[in-house]
Automatic annotation (TrEMBL):
PROSITE patterns according to UniProt: RADICAL_SAM
Descriptive protein name: Radical SAM core domain-containing protein
SMART domains, per the entry: Elp3
One example GO MF annotation: metal ion binding
Matches recorded under NCBIfam families: rSAM_more_4Fe4S
Gene3D superfamilies hit by this protein: Aldolase class I
Keywords: Iron, Iron-sulfur, Metal-binding, S-adenosyl-L-methionine
PANTHER family, sorted: PQQA PEPTIDE CYCLASE (PTHR11228:SF7), RADICAL SAM DOMAIN PROTEIN (PTHR11228)
The keyword Calcium appears for this protein: no
Length: 443
């Protein structure tokens, strides 16, 4: 029996491990014994009984792996021949109490190869950093960094900007990623695509374009600027979507429901794989904007059902949207892995990297220039493990009494650290002022 390295990634974590399906990036949490079991089988083809015996002797337990389930999932394959386990193939196991309580590596890394942009959107989170000139790295430098990241456990790459297509080496970079079979998304305003890039993306299996649009009407010019050409955007998206599924993203800025329904109609008619409506990051907003977004979500979901757009994947995205649901029961989040993925991603499951290599837990930290370190000067792994800022985020605990009484505190931990820092001068003092649950809690 052997581990299916072609289809699955095995990541050992402090809580046990994760199995990741390479084809769709679905993640499965496993316990420490299964992680140990599968790691041995990833080294070669061995008899299951022999591996089980090793684990039972090592941990002094009775171990019964669900081999049938692993075979059904495609995690395990029958090897052509079984070999004796070699001592050097036995993984070194360190007790959980001695391990740091954070993921071994970020799930996703967002890179900003350039901050140059042809638009000036009113809602852009880069603020005065937009169009700032950095010493931009070459595609080869980025690819070397990303290749090492995927070998260390990173699951996907997100290319952001600015406008990624204004990066001087973008075509070479996406070709590198495609040839290396690295799952990549690239968010674009859709106005800078030439025929060469369109032809590439139409046949790409690993690079998925995400096109930003806020309205198909006049509202779009108000928020994305007069340089935005709707006709050109529509032409680019429809041309690509004839051959490839694309994604579309809208930031909720108070658009009319009819504006949003028009985008939904466009998505259904043009082979759009996923339409997401995102919450606008704004430290000056309050909880009512969360509530407004959820109300719009309900209305659009009803419209999608009534229109029988069965194959359209629609969702809302944004930090802390769960705080809108006053009756949400946080007890459903029980495992250490769930706590990491339900709560803030900053420094826990993702990292963001600017054109010069400066890294941030979340791009919101750029506002105060709070960097984790430069990944080109050291490495992503070193920054991930050694950054004092990341350590503060991972181990900080809210001091807010209302938050401490909330059933969501074990993963929410007082909300957005950056909002709290901006509003209260402390990441883990008072809780996030936007939270509806906290706002309505008495005492």
């Amino acid at each position: 029996m052997e581990f299916n390295n072609k289809l699955f990634i095995l990541r050992k974590e402090f809580f046990g491990g994760l199995l990741v399906n390479k084809s769709n990036l679905t993640r499965y949490e496993i316990n420490k014994y299964d992680a140990y079991f599968l790691e041995i089988l990833s080294k070669g083809s061995y008899e299951v009984s022999e591996v089980v015996q090793c684990i039972e002797e090592h941990f002094s337990i009775d171990y019964y792996p669900n081999v049938e389930k692993f075979i059904e999932m495609g995690v395990l394959l029958e090897g052509e021949k079984s070999y004796k386990i070699k001592k050097e193939h036995l993984p070194i196991y360190v007790e959980n109490c001695d391990k740091p309580k954070y993921l071994s590596y970020p799930f996703e890394i967002s890179i900003y190869p350039s901050l140059q942009c042809n638009l000036k959107c009113s809602f852009c989170f880069l603020g005065d950093k937009l169009n700032k000139r950095y010493a931009e790295k070459s595609a080869t430098q980025w690819f070397d960094l990303i290749k090492q990241a995927t070998q260390d456990g990173c699951l996907s790459i997100s290319i952001l900007g600015g406008e990624p297509l204004l990066y001087y080496d973008i075509f070479k970079l996406v070709n590198y990623l495609e040839n290396a079979k690295i799952r990549t998304s690239m968010t674009s305003n859709g106005l800078c695509w030439n025929k060469k890039m369109i032809n590439f993306i139409q046949t790409s299996q690993y690079v998925t374009p995400i096109f930003s649009i806020q309205s198909l009407g006049l509202f779009n010019r108000d928020v994305m600027g007069r340089n935005h050409n709707i006709q050109r955007w529509v032409s680019t998206v429809t041309e690509i979507s004839k051959y490839k599924k694309v994604r579309i993203n809208t930031v909720y800025l108070g658009q009319s429901i009819d504006d949003l329904k028009s985008i939904v109609d466009f998505c259904y008619k043009n082979n759009v794989e996923k339409y997401s409506l995102a919450y606008q990051y704004d430290i000056n907003s309050d909880w009512t904007s969360f509530k407004a977004l959820i109300d719009v979500q309900d209305e659009l979901e009803r419209y999608i059902r009534m229109s029988q757009y069965d194959n359209l994947n629609f969702c809302v995205e944004g930090c802390m949207i769960y705080s809108t649901y006053k009756n949400l029961d946080g007890s459903i989040v029980t495992s250490e892995y769930q706590k990491l993925t339900y709560g803030c991603e900053a420094g826990n499951s993702r990292l963001e990297i600017l054109p010069n290599g400066d890294s941030f837990p979340c791009i919101s930290f750029l506002d105060k220039d709070l960097s984790c370190g430069n990944v080109f000067d050291s490495s992503i792994k070193k920054v991930w493990d050694d950054s004092a800022l990341l350590s503060e985020i991972r181990y900080g605990k809210t001091e807010d009494e209302k938050c401490l009484k909330c059933s969501l505190v074990h993963f929410c931990n007082g909300g957005c650290p950056m909002v709290n820092l901006s509003k209260n001068q402390k990441m883990f003092g008072e809780g996030d002022p936007r939270c509806l649950i906290r706002k309505e809690r008495k005492g």
